């Protein structure tokens, strides 16, 4: 008889299709261990896995966080550091992890199912059966190096966070909310003093207690093969059953079976100081206990109530505290899902002398709102808006379902009844029937009449000084106690740990797994159609173009349509700025902030900004005005709307009004300036951002938007502009009008419409409502898109004469650096494929720089820029105890590879190529992303539509000699004095060593305060302001909205690197 194949021992708990997006959610449970498996099936090229463990701890040791790092150091059957990541790298995948206060999630992001299936069992063994060696704890967690300094990957990470304002305030709030027997009280990342004494045994104990199948959920989002998935998981449980009991009937659910926090008996207000030399501006954090997060209807109502209170500039709290009374730059509100949820309010950019007053104003305003009838018309619109946004996010956000599923696993019912709430939006149907009294009762119960915890975050130069002195004294004392012999022993211990951790993976081990075929990667196809001036890019022969050709013609506006089966319309109006004078460029962030928040003229009548915002919220799903970096043009702007198809013409009408019929009101402009000024101190605390801003100003022309929008410009310019507005408002208003007229010309506009074009009413001629505006000359030719390299200044075109700049910052406990040299200028450069593979090779997780820098505790991460036509290459060091050491080691590592002294690893080369495949899948992860990428390739970059396919083909054939040549010609100069410049921001205690090291490398060095790099763009100030310019630091509304960073934004994700 033929042998019978064991059927996977998983039972299906439920399966349902969500009725607001094309997604099927299926829940399984292991019959042996109770492990949960939840799959959200959705179309697209990427499979995202989230292997989630509920991690509860009752101390600040950081054990949960250390495991996030240690599991990647090897497992029972795969005892090699880096094997998991090298395997992932070859299989169009990348791994990552994060630690939250209540869970740790290990992520696997893969292009196509085949790669995901190949890596999954290896990854899960690393999670459940890791090798937690003493040597791994030395390098990954904490050690004292041979010079007596603290280091280690986890330690360096927390060193950069522990004394930040957000960390100090959040931790104190949780200390006041929760008693010692509740896990939410503790810093799961680890406090530095606790990490210094944390033992490997304590970490192993925590792993044994929490890391078991019964406490793990396998969450998968994408086009999954269910049968294959369950077979893999069944085999995995078989493979671990001799090492860890699958069944654990005594196991208690963390946070659920644990003691719950008592209700707050009284309001507590405390002041928490944070280190900062600029003592002008602080922030506030207010916390209320809320309902059980499983109460779906009530929590949906809380979400809507927060939208009503703080959702936009017309929401009552934001409108009063920010727009009218100008007491803060913003007030944000959110809630954390817990058995007793926590509702947070955070006023930011608050005058340090008014912290207590603003906290009281917030609370009194909540009571005031609860004491009288609500604006029920606006409340109903908030309900509809939140419903629309959920539908939109469910279709277009990769993280929408994973976040909800993980939260349900943490705190929901194991029978699946709470997960089933995701099937529909019935809670909205219930809430729509709520009365004014229902809403005010909710508000009174959880907010206005409830005790709360308030933390007043106050900047303190004295604390900054004392922390520095205390740290210097602590380290100096230890060095004295250790002596030369003790330091030598520490170095030997560290060297032994490194040798043990870096054992090479035998060549044949990785070859057990073939590079997966790409046939399982299902890229999203978007059909391009063009009208008007866009036809000059070439005709299209597809169904979408036929629909557009059959539609009534309009004026020849440049429009590119992208046809995808979406339920929404995504519009981007790309606006060039090449005709805008440099003197207007610093106004762009204020112009953007004011764009949707200013009065307009409609039908001959003035419409106040509150009415504008309310109507926009009714007519749209969302709207933004950003820099155009997301569509590949860092010198342009992008106005974006997301609407339902029936609102297509309404959206175009709004565009016309906002572009040509706005009223520049001195009151509204002043409000924007005040908000921006209040945000500057916080923006200047960011060492990475400041290093980048100094680098940008060093290498780019003042005409560049990237230069003009910097905090270092706002710090002086906005203060002077505010004074000028008070003295001579007409001049300032004329500047805004001049800026508007320079932007909104026919030749500056390119339109991208992403939609199911068959559903669009009058897709082309509807735009005549915009293009028929008097003054638009539709005969003009479209202005070319500004190439990034064209904005380089003399130093940017030939870097190296400046050398290095070191900027000590009291807000930092770490260091950051940017090194810049000349780079590629064209996507047609024949060296591009080899350059992409070379950069991928160097940056690989467990690759040469990872091991040389992160593996030795020299930085949390390093990376290169990939701005192909920028004309420069950048090397960036992120969160380092000494950025100069990271630079020096990186230079030596690259030099050995480039010269051939160190041979290239074929598996890392394969991984680099597969990483490029994954990057292409990232660009097409959703329908809107795929459509946007077509616009970037064809319109912004002027490349052929199949450019991505061709580059994928070319990188597969890059030779080792070509990789080494790219390293020699393009990469190495970024480490060479005379060919590169280096900008370092660092803690003051690090200044001396970094100056010495960079000098020894051959760089000229200069130490400057941050204020040295302020730039007023020629706007003169009063004679009496010179003395206070450096202190009274101001900033624009830190417009994350306005533009992306000059780089690819990779650092934003570095916090999540395992």
Q: What is the total tally of β strands?
A: 29
User: What is the percent of helical residues?
Assistant: 40-55%
Q: Globular, elongated, flat, extended or rod-shaped: what is the shape?
A: globular
Contiguous helical run count: 37
Instruction: Let me know the average pLDDT.
Output: 92
What is the CA-atom radius of gyration, in angstroms?
Answer: 29 Å
Main pleated-sheet profile: 7 strands, mixed
**Low-pLDDT windows of residues:** 1026-1058
State the distance separating the first and last CA atoms: 49 Å
Strand order of the largest sheet: 1-2-3-9-4-6-5
Kindly summarize this structure in a few lines.
With 1058 residues, the chain is an alpha+beta fold.
Structure description:
The protein is α+β, with helices and mostly antiparallel strands. The chain is built from 37 helices and 29 strands. Strands 1-2-3-9-4-6-5 form a seven-stranded mixed β-sheet, sandwiched between helices. Strands 10, 11, 12, 13, 14 and 15 form a six-stranded mixed β-sheet that branches. Helix 1 (63-70) packs across helix 8. The radius of gyration is 29 Å and the shape is globular. Residues 1026-1058 have low confidence and may be disordered.
């Amino acid at each position: 008889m033929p042998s019978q194949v064991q059927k996977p021992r998983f039972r299906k708990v439920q399966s349902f299709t969500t009725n607001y997006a094309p997604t099927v959610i299926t829940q399984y449970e292991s019959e042996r261990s109770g492990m949960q498996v939840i799959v959200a099936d959705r179309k697209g090229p990427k499979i995202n896995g989230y292997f989630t463990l509920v991690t509860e701890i009752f101390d600040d040791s950081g054990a949960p966080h250390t495991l996030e790092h240690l599991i990647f150091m090897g497992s029972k059957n795969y005892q090699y550091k880096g094997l998991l990541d090298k395997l992932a790298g070859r299989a169009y995948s990348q791994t990552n992890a994060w630690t939250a206060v209540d869970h740790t999630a290990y992520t696997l992001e893969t292009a196509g199912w085949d790669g995901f299936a190949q890596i999954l069992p290896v990854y899960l063994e690393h999670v459940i059966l890791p090798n937690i060696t003493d040597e791994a704890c030395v390098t990954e967690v904490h050690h004292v190096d041979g010079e007596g300094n603290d280091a280690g990957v986890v330690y360096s990470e927390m060193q950069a966070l522990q004394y930040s304002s957000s960390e100090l305030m959040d931790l104190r709030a949780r200390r006041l909310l929760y008693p010692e027997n509740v896990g939410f009280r503790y810093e799961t990342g680890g406090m530095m003093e606790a990490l210094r004494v944390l033992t490997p045994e304590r970490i192993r104990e925590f792993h044994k207690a929490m890391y078991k199948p019964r406490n793990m959920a396998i969450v998968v989002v994408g086009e999954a093969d269910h049968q294959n998935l369950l077979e893999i998981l069944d085999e995995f449980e078989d493979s671990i059953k001799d090492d860890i009991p699958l069944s654990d009937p005594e196991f208690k659910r963390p946070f659920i079976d644990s003691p719950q926090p008592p209700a707050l008996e009284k309001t507590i207000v405390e002041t928490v100081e944070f280190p900062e030399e600029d003592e002008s501006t602080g922030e506030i954090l207010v916390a209320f206990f809320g309902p059980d997060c499983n109460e779906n209807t009530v929590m949906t109502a809380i979400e809507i109530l927060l939208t009503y209170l703080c959702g936009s500039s017309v929401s009552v709290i934001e409108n009063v505290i920010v727009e009218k009374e100008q007491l803060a730059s913003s007030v944000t509100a959110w809630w954390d899902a817990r058995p007793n949820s926590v509702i947070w309010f955070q006023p930011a950019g608050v005058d340090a002398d008014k912290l207590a007053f603003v906290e009281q104003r917030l609370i009194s305003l909540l009571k005031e709102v609860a004491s009288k009838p609500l604006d029920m018309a606006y409340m109903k619109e908030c309900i509809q808006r939140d419903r629309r946004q959920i539908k939109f996010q469910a279709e277009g956000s990769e993280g929408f379902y994973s976040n909800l599923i993980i939260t349900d696993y943490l705190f929901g019912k194991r029978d699946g009844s709470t997960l089933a709430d995701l099937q529909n939006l019935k809670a909205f149907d219930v809430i729509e029937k709520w009365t004014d009294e229902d809403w005010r009762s909710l508000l009174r119960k959880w907010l206005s009449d409830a005790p709360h915890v308030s933390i007043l975050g106050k900047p303190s130069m004295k604390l900054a000084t004392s922390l520095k002195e205390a740290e210097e004294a602590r380290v100096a004392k230890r060095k004295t106690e250790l002596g030369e012999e003790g330091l030598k022993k520490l170095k030997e211990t560290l060297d032994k740990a490194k040798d043990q951790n870096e054992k090479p993976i035998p060549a044949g081990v990785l070859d057990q797994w073939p590079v997966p075929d790409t046939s399982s990667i299902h890229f999203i196809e978007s059909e391009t159609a063009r009208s008007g001036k866009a036809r000059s890019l070439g005709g299209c022969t597809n169904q979408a173009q036929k629909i557009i050709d059959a539609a009534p013609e309009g004026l020849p506006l440049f429009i590119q349509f992208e046809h995808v089966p979406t339920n929404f319309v995504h519009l981007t109006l790309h606006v060039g700025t090449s005709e805008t004078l440099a003197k207007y460029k610093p106004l762009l962030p204020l112009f953007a902030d004011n764009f949707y928040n200013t009065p307009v003229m409609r039908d001959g009548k003035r419409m106040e900004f509150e009415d504008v915002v309310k109507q926009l919220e009714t007519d749209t799903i969302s709207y933004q005005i950003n820099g155009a970096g997301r569509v590949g043009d860092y010198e342009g702007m992008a106005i974006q709307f997301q609407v339902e198809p029936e609102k297509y013409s309404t959206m175009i009408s709004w565009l016309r009004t906002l572009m040509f019929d706005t009223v520049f009101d001195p009151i509204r402009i002043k409000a924007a300036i005040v908000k921006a000024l209040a945000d500057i101190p916080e923006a200047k605390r960011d060492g990475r951002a400041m290093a980048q801003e100094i680098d940008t100003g060093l290498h780019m022309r003042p005409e560049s938007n990237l230069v003009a929008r910097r905090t270092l410009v706002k710090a002086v310019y906005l203060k002077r502009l505010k004074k000028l507005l008070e003295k001579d408002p007409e001049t300032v208003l004329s500047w805004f009008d001049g800026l508007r007229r320079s932007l909104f010309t026919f030749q500056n506009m390119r339109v991208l419409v992403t939609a199911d074009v068959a559903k669009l009413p009058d897709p082309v001629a509807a735009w005549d409502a915009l293009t028929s505006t008097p003054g638009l000359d539709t005969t003009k030719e479209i202005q070319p898109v500004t190439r990034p390299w064209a904005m380089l200044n003399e130093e940017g075109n030939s870097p190296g004469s400046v050398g290095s700049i070191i900027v000590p910052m009291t807000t930092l406990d770490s260091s950051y650096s940017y090194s810049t040299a000349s780079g590629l200028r064209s996507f047609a450069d024949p060296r591009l494929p080899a350059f992409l593979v070379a950069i991928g090779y160097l940056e690989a997780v467990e690759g040469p720089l990872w091991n040389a820098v992160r593996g030795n505790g020299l930085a949390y991460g390093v990376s290169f820029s990939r701005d192909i036509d920028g004309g420069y290459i950048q090397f960036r060091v992120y969160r380092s105890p000494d950025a100069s050491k990271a630079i020096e080691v990186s230079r030596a590592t690259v030099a050995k590879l480039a010269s051939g002294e160190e041979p290239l690893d074929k598996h890392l080369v394969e991984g680099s190529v597969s990483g490029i495949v994954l990057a292409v899948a990232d660009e097409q992860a959703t329908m809107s992303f795929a459509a946007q990428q077509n616009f970037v390739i064809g319109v912004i970059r002027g490349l052929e539509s199949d450019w991505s396919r061709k580059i994928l083909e070319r990188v597969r054939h890059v030779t080792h000699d070509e990789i080494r040549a790219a390293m020699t010609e393009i990469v190495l100069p970024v480490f060479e004095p005379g060919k590169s410049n280096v900008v370092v921001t660092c803690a003051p205690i690090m200044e001396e060593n970094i100056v010495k090291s960079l000098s020894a490398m051959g760089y000229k060095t200069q130490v400057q305060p941050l204020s040295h790099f302020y730039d007023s763009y020629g706007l003169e100030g009063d004679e009496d302001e010179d003395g206070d310019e450096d202190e009274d630091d101001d900033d624009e509304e830190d417009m994350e909205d306005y533009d992306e960073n000059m780089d690819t934004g990779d650092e934003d994700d570095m916090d999540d690197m395992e």
